Amino acid sequence: MSSLHDTQFEVPSYAVGKELALSLHIKITPPYGLSHFPWPWKSQPRIETPIPYSVRTYPSGFDPVRTAPANERMHLSVLETLSGGFEKGPQVVLCRVIQAPSKPTPYHAPLAAGMKIVIKIFDHEYYLHKVTFPGSYTHYQLADQHLSREASALRYMHRAGRDENGNELPGKLRLTGGHNLTPEYYGTWAIALSSEDEWRYAGAVAMEYIDGVSMEDLCTREDEDSMRVYPMTEPQPLYNADENETHGFLDMGENSRLKVLADILSGFVEGYSFGVNHGE
After folding, report:
1. Which among 62, 64, 121, 70 has a CA at the least distance from the CA of 91?
2. Can you state the percent helix, strand and coil of the chain, rounding each to 5?
3. Any residues with CB less than 8 A from the CB of 142 and at least 6 apart, and which?
4. Bridge-partner residues for 99, per DSSP?
5. Which residue has the higher pLDDT, 44 or 101?
6. Are 190 and 201 in contact (CB under 8 A)?
7. In this structure, what is the dihedral angle of CA atoms 22, 28, 33, 39, given to the nearest 10 degrees?
8. Collapsing DSSP states into helix, strand and coil, what is residue 124?
9. DSSP characters for 109-120?
């Protein structure tokens, strides 16, 4: 990715070279914010209470006062901005693990120092501050809703095929990592951020970094604004040559493309059988 592209999307809090301190967020709020999800806060049966005011400074369900043990702490260095920007909502950045949790936990796949991972950050500072849809929510309420839905879905999918301790069960279907459509899940975290007068925390989901070529880059368009794409006809490298000289090539023939389509549909069906709907 070019430096110009990085600069266009980069925001100060997560700029290249920044080091981030994260604490594991275990008590994730159940998914909410859309009409088909129940409201998670009720003072008494069937009486809804407002979204906690505290989501201005930390994700709902997270305890900012508690000191996280070593196996629930992680330090990252930002390598690249993949998507985001001011008023763009979630920020997606590529990071390297500087300090991994001291030992594995059942809440996510194991992490190790030196790994590259992707984190999707739900920081309300980079959301539109005037939200008109869905509902009359503030930008910080909307960020908390997005975190609750994405974190809940990925954690649920990660638990498929694993026991309560996070160990894989032989012969059971898995939904994250490996050949699956969904990347491996490395936990939900709260990033410590300092401002002029206080500390605050932004919620983030950590996931597998998949080093490859997007489907967009395997196709051409008639022009930049065209919705129709055409697959390349010649075999295409799966990695940039300057990053990995031993890269393979993808056959762009019809049989190969149909195999890719079949794999995608199979992944959707497997997830749907576990109650995962990609309607959003």
Report:
1. 121
2. 25, 25, 50
3. 33, 124, 127, 131
4. 75
5. 101
6. yes
7. -150
8. helix
9. ----TT-EEEEE
d(C-alpha 116, C-alpha 263), whole Å = 25
Q: Distance between CA 139 and CA 198 in Å, rounded?
A: 19
Q: For residue range 67-83, list pLDDT tens digits in order.
A: 999 999 999 999 999 99
pTM summary value? 0.86
Task: Give yes or no for a contact between 134 and 33, defined as CB atoms under 8 angstroms apart.
Answer: yes
- Residue 6: count other Cβ atoms within 10 Å of its Cβ: 15
Written as six digits, the tokens of 208 are 């597998």
- CA-to-CA distance for 106 and 126, rounded, in angstroms? 31
Q: With contact defined as beta carbons under 8 Å apart, do 127 and 149 qualify?
A: no
Residue 241: pLDDT band with limits 50, 70, 90: low
Kindly report whether the peptide bond that precedes residue 30 is cis, defined as omega within 30 degrees of 0.
Answer: no
Whether 64 contacts 25, CB under 8 Å: no
Question: Which phi and psi angles does 77 have, rounded to 5°?
Answer: -120, 130
Which pair of structure tokens corresponds to residue 106?
């059942």
- Asked if residue 115 lies in contact with residue 206, where contact means CB atoms within 8 angstroms, the answer is no
Contact 7, 170 (CB under 8 A): no
